[in-house]
Amino acid sequence: MELDSNNHSVFSLHYHLVLVVKYRRKVIGDEISNRLKEIFEYIQPKYNITLQEWNYDKDHVHVLMKAYPNTEISKFLNAYKSASSRLIKKDFPIIRKQLWKEYFWSKSYCLITTGGAPMDVIQKYIETQGQK
Q: Where is the signal peptide (predicted)?
C-alpha cells in the first residue's frame, strides 16, 4: 500500500463519492461530464483533494478522490456542488428546462471511505459505470 505523508503524519485517505442529479434527471453525457470533471479539478487543490478516477451515468457521477487529514470534505462538497451547478447551467442552458429550480445536484450524496476494498476493485467499478 502506498502511503502519503506530510510534516507530522502518514496517511492513506481515499473516498468514493457519488453525486446525484436533482430529481434523478438523465442529463449527463460526455460533454457535461467532462465539464463537471474540469470544475472538480479546478477546485480540488484549494481543499487538498486529488482526483483519482471519474466516471458517470446519465443521472449521477462517481468520483474516487484522495484527501489529506486537514481536508474539510463537507466544505469542498458544498463549494464544488455550488460552483458546478452554477457553471453547468450557464454553459448548458438547455438543462434549465429539465431542472426547473436552481439546483443541479440533489442535496444528498454518498461518501464512502475505501479502506475496506482494494483500490483496483473500486477503480474498476467506477470505470464500468454506465456500461451495460
A: none
Helix axes 30-43, 73-91, angle to 10 degrees: 140
Cα distances (angstroms) measured from residue 6 to each of 10, 48, 63, 66, 71: 7, 12, 24, 14, 13
Closest CA to 64 of 4, 118, 10, 1: 118
Task: Determine the Cα–Cα distance for residues 78 and 58; give it in Å rounded to an integer.
Answer: 22
pLDDT band for 119, please (50, 70, 90 cuts).
confident
Residue 113 in grid coordinates = 471511505
Q: Which domains does the chain have, with CATH numbers?
A: 4-127 (3.30.70.1290)
The answer for 66, left when phi > 0, alpha when psi is -120 to 50, beta otherwise, is: beta
Least confident of 54-58, 80-84, 100-104: 100-104
Which pTM does this prediction carry?
A: 0.87
